[in-house]
Write a structure and sequence with these properties.
The complex is a heterodimer of chains A (398) and B (138).
Chain A lengths: L1 H5 L6 H5 L5 E7 L9 E5 L5 H5 L4 E3 L7 E3 L4 E16 L24 E4 L1 E12 L4 H8 L5 H5 L4 H7 L6 H7 L4 H10 L2 E4 L2 E4 L2 H18 L6 E2 H10 L4 H11 E3 L8 E4 L1 H13 L4 E2 H11 L15 E6 L2 E6 L9 H11 L2 E3 H8 L9 H8 E4 L8 E4 L1
Parallel strand pairs in A: 1-6
Antiparallel strand pairs in A: 3-4, 4-5, 5-7, 8-9, 10-12, 11-12, 13-15, 14-15, 16-18, 17-18
Chain B lengths: L1 E6 L8 E7 L17 E7 L5 E6 L2 E21 L14 E15 L4 E2 L6 H10 L7
Parallel strand pairs in B: 1-6, 2-6
Antiparallel strand pairs in B: 3-4, 4-5, 5-6, 5-7
Classes of the chains: A alpha+beta (398), B mainly beta (138).
Chain lengths: 398, 138
């Protein structure tokens, strides 16, 4: 018996795949043949193989979501594809999944003919389809508890921090809840201008960010700092002495500025004209729609000296409409819209029944669906009309 | 929730499994239905020089060939982790997937089975194939 057991290799996939010419092999049910629901077949692209074999992929999703597989940078939804064929799975002889007591050639095989044995009949396999990361949920989670000035005041109050922790999320919490790869999640956090505070990723209340920015501009004026070359150490330490948490002072530079030197010594930052101007426009429009002349006047008054506001900066931020003889402007920000095309177009067409291309484009250019161009999304979700050849095309709902 | 895909075999030494695929289903005699283990299904032969295979199941013969999969399959095994995290009482917690094998080829039989005559006789064989029924004569 012992000799027989050592004589492995007579019941395996290798024998089947390397069957020689003019020879035959017996196909039988495995001693442990059964449903083996714990064995899953995953079809995947050759280029993803190294990622899986080097343990660089994870499967993410809550119980009520369909699972996605994430590499470092991409997200794939896992779809089960059934088959009506009989797919007999033949393991290698020494396979650990079945090796517990697979006395390979012992027992009933009295003849010494090679055998390949079928462990399971596979009902189908999983396949992977690349998708855009599901970041709507990230926004939803972080919007529950934006960081605000009240919280900044009780910064030292540890009990207060403990109290609020329930609705807060660390990086690991987010990875557990959001179906996106690490890179895409990091990108999403950046797009939301989120910041990590005491280990929790937070969106900062816009009004509070505005307060910090105002203070920064105020300090620059007092100290004669150039907005194109702000010294990080000076800016941050002055804001901290004004009572702002250091992390948020730093965050203010991240949100409204760009680092200009990556070199030695202290960092220099340039405030981004567009981002600063957009901030003030949003602030003005947060109280509701206004006539465009009044808006422009107020906007130009609010922005710091040396910066130039132009209406072109507000693409994807505002909509204008004619009421009688007047042109009115109101806030309608692309960043507040869902990132899935179906929901996005549905909201856009609720907002307006007909869109001209130049108005529509800023609200859809960020849509990202792997395998679909913007043109194909337009074909799918809109009806395009163009009364004459030289007229602007107009898009309406399907 | 996050499920890791583990792989202890490494990139080069992932054990290769095989697939034998045919249309329809193989049915065992009713008396064997609930104890298929160790039961022989049939004989797989590789007669000629091409990548041709014949699979004989009972009185049926299938003809097929070995074809590489367009994309490889990984064989994953669900592994339940025991008392790693006591807080999570739901079943889904503490599951891992382990790569236990890779499949690159299948032996595919996509034609309808041919009825075999135990002792081939030219006249009978001809009639058998033309009527499509299996006439078995000694």
């Amino acid at each position: 018996m012992l000799v027989m057991e050592q004589h492995s290799g007579c019941r395996d996939a290798e024998a089947l795949l390397n069957l020689q010419l003019n020879s035959s092999i017996s196909i039988a049910y495995h001693p442990q043949f059964g449903p083996h629901d714990d064995l899953i077949l995953l079809e995947l692209d050759e280029k993803l193989l190294p990622d899986v074999l080097h343990q660089r992929v994870t499967i993410r999703g809550q119980v009520d979501e369909d699972a996605v597989l994430c590499t470092q940078s991409k997200t794939y939804v896992m779809k089960f594809v059934g088959t009506s064929n009989s797919v007999f799975l033949v393991p290698p002889s020494d396979h650990s999944a079945v090796s517990k007591n697979s006395n390979d050639c012992s027992g009933k095989d009295h003849n010494q003919q090679p055998i390949a044995s079928v462990l399971k009949v596979a009902p189908g396999n999983l396949e992977l389809v690349e998708i855009a990361p599901r970041l709507n949920k990230l926004k939803l989670l972080l919007s529950k508890n934006p960081y605000s000035s009240e919280e900044a005041l009780e910064f030292e109050d540890l009990e207060g921090v403990e109290k609020i922790k329930k609705g807060l999320f660390t990086w690991d919490d987010l990875v557990d809840r959001v179906q996106a790869s690490d890179d895409e999640l990091r990108h999403g956090l950046q797009a939301l201008s989120a910041v990590e505070l005491n280990g929790y990723w937070r969106i900062v209340n816009e009004r509070y960010m505005g307060t910090i920015l105002m203070m920064l501009l105020h300090n620059s004026l007092l100290n004669d700092w150039s907005l194109d070359a702000l010294n990080e150490d000076e800016v941050v330490s002055l804001l901290v002495s004004d009572g702002f948490p250091p992390k948020l002072a730093q965050h203010c530079l991240d949100v409204y500025g760009t680092k200009v030197n990556e070199g030695v010594g202290s960092c220099l930052w340039r405030l981004d004209e567009r981002r600063v101007c957009v901030h003030f426009a949003r602030e003005i429009l947060s109280t509701g729609k206004t006539k465009i002349e009044k808006f422009m006047e107020e906007w130009k008054r609010k922005i710091p000296e040396g910066m130039h506001a132009s209406i072109g900066m507000l693409e994807g931020e505002v909509l204008t409409e004619k009421v009688g003889a007047d042109l009115w402007i109101r806030a309608f920000s692309v960043s507040s819209l869902p990132s899935t095309p179906a929901e996005r177009f549905s909201i856009l067409f609720k907002e307006r029944q007909r869109w001209e291309w130049k108005d529509l484009q800023p609200y859809i250019r960020d849509l990202n669906v792997p395998g679909h161009s913007l043109e194909s999304l337009l074909l799918k979700y809109t009806r395009r009309t163009q009364p004459t050849l030289d007229a602007e095309p107009v898009f309406s709902t399907r | 929730m996050q499920i890791r895909i583990k792989c202890s075999c490494g990139a080069d030494s992932c054990p290769e499994w095989a697939i034998l695929e045919l249309q329809g289903i193989v049915e065992a005699q009713p008396s064997f239905q609930d104890r298929l283990q160790n039961l022989e299904i049939g004989q797989l032969c590789r007669p000629s020089s091409q990548e041709n295979y014949t699979f004989t199941i009972g009185y049926h013969e299938l003809t097929g060939s070995k074809v590489p999969l367009k994309k490889p399959f990984l064989v994953l095994k669900k592994v339940k982790l025991m008392d790693v995290d006591q807080r999570n009482e739901d079943n889904s917690a503490g599951t891992e997937l382990e790569v236990v094998g890779i499949i690159r080829h299948r032996i595919l039989f996509k034609t309808r089975p041919k009825a075999l005559i135990s002792k081939p006789q030219p006249v009978v064989k001809e009639r058998a194939s033309s009527t499509g029924s299996s006439v078995l004569t000694k």
